[in-house]
UniProtKB/TrEMBL annotation:
Entry protein name: Ribonucleoside-diphosphate reductase
Annotated stretches, region: Disordered: 785-890
Protein keywords: Allosteric enzyme, ATP-binding, Deoxyribonucleotide synthesis, Nucleotide-binding, Oxidoreductase
PROSITE patterns in the cross-refs: ATP_CONE (PS51161), RIBORED_LARGE (PS00089)
Class of enzymatic activity (EC top level): oxidoreductase
Ranges of compositional bias, category Low complexity: 817-828
Residues annotated as domain ATP-cone: 7-98
Residue ranges, compositional bias (Basic and acidic residues): 856-866, 880-890
Lineage: Bacteria, Bacillati, Actinomycetota, Actinomycetes, Propionibacteriales
Family per similarity comment: Belongs to the ribonucleoside diphosphate reductase large chain family.
Described function: Provides the precursors necessary for DNA synthesis. Catalyzes the biosynthesis of deoxyribonucleotides from the corresponding ribonucleotides.
Organism: Microlunatus soli
Cellular-component GO terms for this entry: ribonucleoside-diphosphate reductase complex
Amino acid sequence: MTVTSEISVVKRDGSRAPYDGYEIARSIEEASRGLDDSVTRATQIASELEITLFDGITSQQLDEAVIGVALGNVKDDPAFDIIAARLLIKTLYKAVLGDGVTRDDIRDRHHELFAGYLADGVRSGLLDPRLTELFDLDRLAATLDPDRDDLLHYIGAQTLRTRYMITDHERRPLEVPQFFWMRVAMGLALNEDDPTSVAISLYDKMSRLEYLAAGSTLVNAGTSYAQLSNCFVMQAEDDIEHIAKSIRDVMWITKGTGGIGFSVSKLRSEGSPIRSNNTTSTGPIPFMHTIDSTLRAISRGGKKFGALCFYLENWHLDFAQFLDLRQNSGDPYRRTRTANTAVWISDEFMQRVERDQDWYLFDPLEVGDLVELHGAAFSARYAEYVAMAERGELRRFRKIRAREQWRAILISLQTTSHPWLTWKDTINGRALNNNTGTIHLSNLCTEICLPQDRDNISVCNLASINLSKHLVGAKQQARIDWKRLATSVRLAVRQLDNLIDITISSVPESERSNDLNRAVGLGVMGFTDLTERLGLSYESEQAYELIDEVMEYISWHAIDASADLARERGSYTNFDGSRWSQGLVPIDTLDVLEADRGTPVEVDRTTRLDWDSLRTKVKGGMRNATLMAIAPTASIGLVAGTTPGLDPQFSQIFSRATSSGKFLEVNRNLVSDLVERGLWDDVKDELLRAQGDLSKVDTAPTDLQRVYRTSFQLSPYAYLNVAARAQKWIDQAISRNIYLASRDIGEMVDLYSAAWKMGVKTTYYLHMMPRHTAEQSTVKINKAEQLRGQDRTSAGPASGRRGFGGVARPQSPVSPTPAGAATTEPAAKVGTSPTPTVESAPEPAEQAQILPLLADDTRVTDHEGYDSEDIDGASCPIDPQERLQCDSCQ
C-alpha cells in the first residue's frame, strides 16, 4: 500500500503537491471544535482517512474522502455528522470565499465579500438588481453570523447546497449558507418601506432555522426570476381550447418550480357525444397522459422536478379507469408515470357507504352542475339525477354499490399509494373564503383548499415554523418559548404577504388569483421532534393536547397578524362576503360542517385563548383569504434539521434517499437520552441490528420505548387524532401521511371512515409496511475498499460508491384501535422519569407587541457507510414519487 509520504495531491490549478497530513489533521480538529472527545474523534478520522488515499487524488476528492470517513462513523456517534457538515461547509468557504480561509478570519471574509457577491450576481444576470440598490449593504454584511452554519446537519447542508443555493453557469457554488439566507431575506423585503431592517429580521429567523420559507421561495427569492409561489390549483373546462391552454399553463407553472393540483372532473366521459363534429369523446384519461408526459419534459435542471396531482370526483363515469392510472400493467397510454391521483369525495358518498346503498356514476356532460355543488345541496341534486336515471331520462350512467367502489378505492390506495383520499364537503363546508366559488380540488400535496374557475388558477404561498427551535430548557424543565413562537408566526405572515407582491407568474390567471385573494399557508414541522424532547409518546393524550394547544396559539397569532396587516395595507379584494367578514374563525366552521352533514364531527372542541375579541377584529378586515396549511416539508425539514410536518419517526437509524443523495440518519434525541442514562455504548450495535427498532432492544428502558415508537408501531388512529386536533385551527388542510402495518381492507375501511367522521379534510400517502418490507436488501460495505472501485494505489479517480441498505424487516403489527375508541395512554405511563412541564400558552394580550461532493457533478450518490459486516439496512419508506413531488413545491 502506498504510504502517505509518497502521495501527491492534484490542486485546483492542476499543480501537484505532497499530501500534507498535518494540514488535514488541523482541518479535522477545527471541524471537531466544541465536541466531547474532539481530539479522539479527529484522530480517528485522520487515521481512517489514510486508507482511502491514492497518488494523484485531487484536492476536491480529498475533501470528499474526509467527509466520507466522518459520515461512516455517524452510526456509532451522531457527533460525526456535525464534523461532516462543518467539513462540507468549509468546501463552500473555499469555493466562494477563497482558499486558505481560517476559522479566525471567516467572519471578516463574510463581511468583506458580501457586497461583491451581490454585485457579481447582478452582473451575471442571476440576481435582482434591486439587491444592490435598495439596501444598506454594510449594515447587512455586519449582521451575517457564520457561527449559525453550525446549526445545519450534514443532510441539511448538502440539501441547501444542491437544491437551493445559486451556482454559476458551470454549476460552481456562488453562495455560502449565510449569503444564501440573507439573499432570500432581501428578496422577501423588496417592497418594505425599510427593506434593510425587515431583511435583517427575516434573516435572523431563517438563519436560526426557526422558520423557513418553502422551496420555490428559497430557490428564487432575490434572483432575476422571482417566481416565489409554491402551489397552483387549476381545473380543466370541458372544451378543447381550455384543455389545450391548461397544458400550456402546466408547462409554464412547472418551469417556474410550482407544484400543481389539476381537476378533470368537468371533462365529459369516454363515449360522450361531441356535437361540433358528430363524434364521441375519448374521455379525460388520454388528456391526463398527455399532461403527464409534459411534466417529464420539463426537468428544471435538476433543482426541482415537475410534479402534479390529478383530482376526480368519484361519481364520474370514467372513475374506474382513473383508479387504474397508477397501475404498472396495462396500456401505457392510459397510465400516468409521473403525475399522482386523488379522489374528491362527497359526504353523500360516505353516507351511502355507511347505509350500504347504491352509488351512481354519471357523465359530466349531463350533470355538470354537480361539480359546483357541495354538502346538502350536492346531496339533493344528486338524488334528483338518480331519480332521472331510473326514469330513463339520462343517456349514460352506471350503478354500483357504494361499498364496492369504496373498497376498490382502498385496494388501489393499498397497492399503488393512489388515489389519495380528500373530502370535498369537509373542505367546502369549513371554508372561510367561501364567497369566491366552489373548491374543486386540493394541491399537489393535499394541504391547499382554494376555489378556482376558468379565470382563476388558485395560488398559495408557503412557509413552516420549526417547532423544535422554539423549545427551551433542559429535558425535565423543557418548555415552549411562547413569546418567540408568536414573533416567528407574525413575521412569517408578513413575509408571506410580501411575497405575493414580489412574485412573478407567467400565467395571468394565477397572477390574478394571487392579487385578489392573497392566500398564504403557514405550517409547522418538527412535531415529533418536539414530543420526543418533551418525553411524550406520539400516541398519547398529552401529545394530542400539545398539538391542539400549539396550533391554536399559532392560528390565533397568524389571524391577528393578518388583521393587523389589513389595517396597515388594506384587506384582500374578495374579503367582503367571506365568512371572515362575518366574524368567523376556523373553529367556528366545525359547527357549520356539522349542521350541513347532520352528524357530529368527532373532535375535541376545547379552546384556551380569547377568540371572541379576535372574531370582532377580523370583521374589520383580513389581509389574506387563508392563513394556514401544513405541508409535508420533506425537503425544508432536512435543512431545518427536524422531523417533517406532523410525521412520526420512520426508524431510529435509517438511510434516506433524496434528490440530493442518500444519507444515514440517526435519531439524535434518542442517542441523547441513551447517553444521559449511560446506555448508548451498550445498545448501539443491537439497535443497528434491529434496524432502529428500540422495542427489540431488551435493555432499553420501557419509558423510552414508548416515546420512541416508530411509524408502523404506532396505531394509525394516532395520526388521525393528531391531524383532527390540528385541523380544527387550520383554515386550509394538512398533508397527512398514514402508516399501516396490516393489509386488512376492513381495517382500512374503518380507518378512513374515522378520518372523515373526525373532520380530517385530506389524507396523503399511505405507507404499507408489507410493501416496504418486500424491498428489503442486505448490504456489505468495507471502508477500506477502493475509493471508486479501483485499487487505492492506482492514480485513477474514483467512479462509484455503495449505498446503505434496503428497507425495514417486518415489525410486530400494532392492532389499530377501533374507530372512535380511545388511543391514549394514561399520563403516568408516559415515562418513569419526571414528565416535563409544557407551559400553557399565554394569552395573546400578554405578548409584547450524505454525501461528499463529486468532482464531476453537483448531484450526489452514495457513500460508504458501514464497517465490514453484513447489515440489513432500514430505508425511509418515502415513495420515490413522493420525494419528487415534495421536492417540487417545498
